[in-house]
TrEMBL record:
Domain spans labelled ABC transmembrane type-1: 81-294
UniProt record similarity statement: Belongs to the binding-protein-dependent transport system permease family.
Segments passing through the bilayer: 20-43, 84-107, 119-141, 167-188, 220-240, 276-295
GO BP: transmembrane transport
Locations listed in the record: Cell membrane
Name recorded for this polypeptide: ABC transporter permease
GO CC annotations, alphabetized: plasma membrane
Lineage, top ranks: Bacteria, Bacillati, Actinomycetota, Actinomycetes, Kitasatosporales
Amino acid sequence: MKSTARRQSYGAKRAPYAFLIPATILFALFFALPIGYALWLSFRKVKVSGLGLGSGARKEVWAGLENYTDALTDSELLHGTLRVLGYGCIVVPVMLGLALLFALMLDSEKVRLAPFTRLAIFLPYAIPGVVAALLWGFLYLPDVSPFYFVLDRLGLPQPDLLDGGPLYLALSNIAVWGGTGFNMIVIYTSLRAIPAEVYEAAKLDGATPTQIALRIKIPMVAPSLVLTFFFSVIATLQMFNEPTTLKPLTNSVSTTWSPLMKVYRDAFGEGDLHSAAAQAVIIAVATLLLSFGFLRAANRRQKQEAAR
């Protein structure tokens, strides 16, 4: 009996680790191993001897930090980063502002057809990014867009949204259209979790719906706002689908418009996997540091407010 009980106890202790094995294997094969391989490539380079012809003319050698130095001094990577930062300054506040506004409106007692409205706002998020970019890309083209036809009939100016400064607005519109619904659902879920007694007490004190929204609802969903801001920043730094999809439609989008586009160009267009790996590592580290710094600042602020 004792030996049986010991075996059962030993098996019960090992069971959680057995359930973790499939996830651990998938994590190692499709996440940890590619990251490790990218790090390995980033510290190496291809050395070409002579004309680069014949066996042994091209061999992989240790490069140290050379690829990282070249990436940090690359003007194309810097300009792509600045473009993405400008794009993010438009997308993040507009998208989160609309998500918060829609969530507050749906949480109102006077709202009608709330389930249908939630679905309508969330539906664009379910559309793949490439499909959404193609859809809006053709709507931006003067020759096929119904918007330009209406503007022409009304005698109004027809701006070229795929050229110059308006390109930022065109790209931002795609991201806002697709991402607002997801952020709205996150914020709306937090609003629905607030106890009804809080609202009843505020109404008894004479608070108006606007005051309740500004002084109760928004402060209480601050963690959700931090979370959505965090996700939005990461998505902005990883911008790739929209400009890549719109590139065949305009000459204003280069192959290095965003940092990830430059990584893709260097890796698969020019065949320089080592330089591309170094750039990818730099982007990943920058994203990690930015995210960690923001979360740390947000946690510090929450602790200060809680101490008050």
